[in-house]
Design brief:
10-stranded mixed beta sheet, 19% strand, binds iron/sulfur cluster, 37% helix
Length: 339
């Protein structure tokens, strides 16, 4: 098992189980997350005997960045994993800091028709270390601190729930990455039972739900997950989430020209979310992908926006990142596979 797979509590239990003192966990976390060493042999205050025990027990494998593309406000990184699979992370430069969009699976089973990542079925879940090291490695090579994390890259995070929870634990832990939970956003396509489970976690993490249509039949066509979890069930889960956590939810809505951006679409969206404590994030489609959809013209985007705004609903149009490079999720990896 990779050492980064463990939470602080798990590492403490491990040390107790081998007759060591609990404080060893604090020493190891300091080396891993604060000093950022890349081998056990650098953990000089552990002593040679304990270092060789850890070397036998745990792996220290670090996924490698094998390709990257850069534009002025976005950097995209392709990682090669130990088994030869590839995943991507996208670093976005905002006024408020650096936000990293990370992947949670190799491939994805959700099959959203506009998504490059969904073209390839899920191969496997990412382990906790493979999620954490996307952050650590990008911080190492950019020499910059990442302040915000969005789990919205390749994969459906709620389809990898247990590892997601441990990942959030280590992101948030002051002894590990120390990223405030309000700076972490999990984005799901709407796996309803997991929304209920997520609301019970002891974290103030943000939740975003990909909606993309307020009509069940249309949503089922572009997001097959809607057949299992239709809109009514998603909205019931969102209401429960709000009653348990008191936290506002974000709805992501990708604008696909001629598909989901009509006046009727906007009005139905308003009806669906009216009265919910929510925020709608409109995302103009990134035509850099090979999925064949079109980005609506700017005036059509603004018309859609205005209809929602006039209803008094919080709405923004997401700033477009990386339309010149392969910044939509899955594009850099697709390129690699075509080579
Ligand atoms: S949009 Fe997200 S959930 Fe849908 S196929 Fe792509 S990666 Fe999977």
């Amino acid at each position: 098992m990779n050492i980064y797979n463990l939470t602080y509590d798990e590492l403490e239990s491990y040390f107790l189980s081998i007759g060591e003192k609990k404080y060893r966990a604090s020493q190891v976390f300091e080396w891993l997350y604060k000093k950022r060493v890349t081998s056990f042999s650098e953990m000089t205050n552990l002593g040679n005997k304990l270092i060789s025990v850890l070397e036998k027990e745990f792996s220290f494998y670090i996924p490698t960045i094998v390709n990257s593309e850069h534009d002025k406000d976005v950097d995209k990184f392709l990682f090669k994993l130990q088994d030869g699979e590839h995943i991507e992370s996208v670093l976005m430069h905002h006024d408020y800091g650096l936000s990293l969009c990370i992947s949670s699976q190799v491939g994805c089973n959700m099959g959203c028709v506009f998504c490059e990542s969904g073209k390839r079925k899920k191969v496997r879940n990412l382990e906790v270390y493979e999620m954490l090291l996307q952050i650590i490695e990008i911080e190492r090579i950019t020499k910059k601190r990442i302040s915000h994390i969005v789990i919205m890259g390749i994969g459906e995070p709620f389809d990898n729930f247990d590892n997601l929870v441990k990942f959030i634990t280590n992101c948030n832990d002051y002894r590990a990455l120390e990223i405030g939970s309000r700076h972490i956003t999990v984005s799901t396509c709407g796996i309803v039972p997991k929304i209920y489970e997520f609301s019970k976690l002891p974290y103030q993490v943000n939740l975003a739900i990909s909606l993309h249509s307020a009509f069940d039949d249309k949503r089922s066509k572009i997001m097959p997950v809607n057949k299992a979890y239709p809109l009514k069930d998603v909205i019931d889960a969102v209401k429960d989430y709000y009653s348990v956590t008191g936290r506002r939810i974000t709805f992501e809505y990708i604008l696909l020209d001629g598909i989901n951006n009509s006046v009727d679409d906007a009005k139905e969206l308003c009806k669906l979310v009216k009265g919910l404590n929510c925020y709608i994030n409109l995302i103009p489609y990134n035509e850099g992908s090979s999925m064949g959809f079109k980005r609506p013209k700017n005036d059509a985007i603004m018309k859609f926006y205005d209809i929602i705004k006039k209803e008094g609903i919080n709405v923004t149009v997401r700033r477009e990142f990386g339309s010149k490079i392969s910044a939509a999720c899955g594009q850099l990896r697709s390129k690699k596979e075509e080579e």
